[in-house]
Amino acid sequence: MERLAIIGSGISGTPAAYYLQDRYEIDIFEKSDRVGGHAHTLDVAEGDRLLSFDTAFVVCNRPNYPNLFKFFEDIGVSTQRHLGGFNFYNLNSGLQFNSEDFGLDPAAVEARYDADFVEIYHEANRFFTQSRKDFWAGKTRVPLQDYLDQNGYSQSFRDNFVVLMGSAVWSIPAESLMEFPASTFISFFMTHDKGGLGGRSVEWETVKGGSSRYVERVKSLLKRPIRTQEAVLSVRRDRDGVLVKTDKGEARYDKAMIATHADQALALVAEPTELEQSVLGRFQYHRTDVTVHTDPVILNVDKSKWQSWNYGQVEKAGKVHTFVTYYANKVHNFEAEKDYFVSLDTPPLDLDPQQVIKVIRYRHPAYDMGTLEAQKQIHQLNETGPIYFSGTYFHVKNRGIDSYGFHESGISSALAIVNQLSKN
User: Where is the Amine oxidase domain (predicted)?
Assistant: First the structure.
């Protein structure tokens, strides 16, 4: 039986090991003491109960995540429905609107709301109608900033809708979002819902008990334990396969699959090819701090307006801060004595330190036109071996080059390698 090394234990690495373990002798290397990547559930004790909620990967839906749901079915993991809903608010101006408001007809909106929201409402409807046509006409392969400029969208619409929506979906700061490929931004809302993660035209679901439950389940089904706290230092090709060097030694394998972030993958490969440097070198990442807490100061005052996904904005010292807070009680459908929040890139709002449960640091990609260009060649990386690459930075082959950046793209890239190695 040939030997396969898999570097990384996220949504690409563990499914690949599960599906290939009868054909290969597999070692999964994970530098952390925790397995699962962005599938990270926090368990919080409240009295004699244990509350579980996610801090990175949270929701998925069947139409857009078919491979992920098939994997859940194969390993025996259950999901539950999650009723979406979004809440936009500006802590300075008091502007607030939510998903229900966008369900109203124009006459009702103009009769009930002030001019600020009426403008955003009409521009949002124009954006989703026009952008769909422009996408199919090939007019959206430009930075988002350029697309908005070319089509005359107001600054208010950008600040109070586009930036908040995009920051929520891709966990990136406002300034990075304007360099984002317009086609990728538009494609997400076309295939998912114009309400983004809070949209209600698709049935969103969460993993019962949190996403870490699928990680625990697949771990229990693997024939060999995952080698945690063993960092891979390099992966080198030679005539006999690959040599994997870790901080604990080195070993030879017939093949290796690097299931990490793109920049990490490039750093691991000894003597990368020109193609690997060209494609993987186009991806950049930034740090995202996620704060789990119980301080409602992060949300607008009226609790009746809170939704699963809350997109906020505040100006401090002349700088506009955007932030996303998901209301864990509502997302995971549990009742509790306290309200629990997961906030990304929390603004300077002086959270009560006594109400902060944990701060978790993640790395997220900052996509731009260079990463979109990389998608045109990305699947060529895996044509020859013996080193293969996978991760959420790959687009789903049958969905076009804009379909990347999510759990589905991560597992789809792994399954493509599974199919390839199963034929060998």
Answer: 12-275
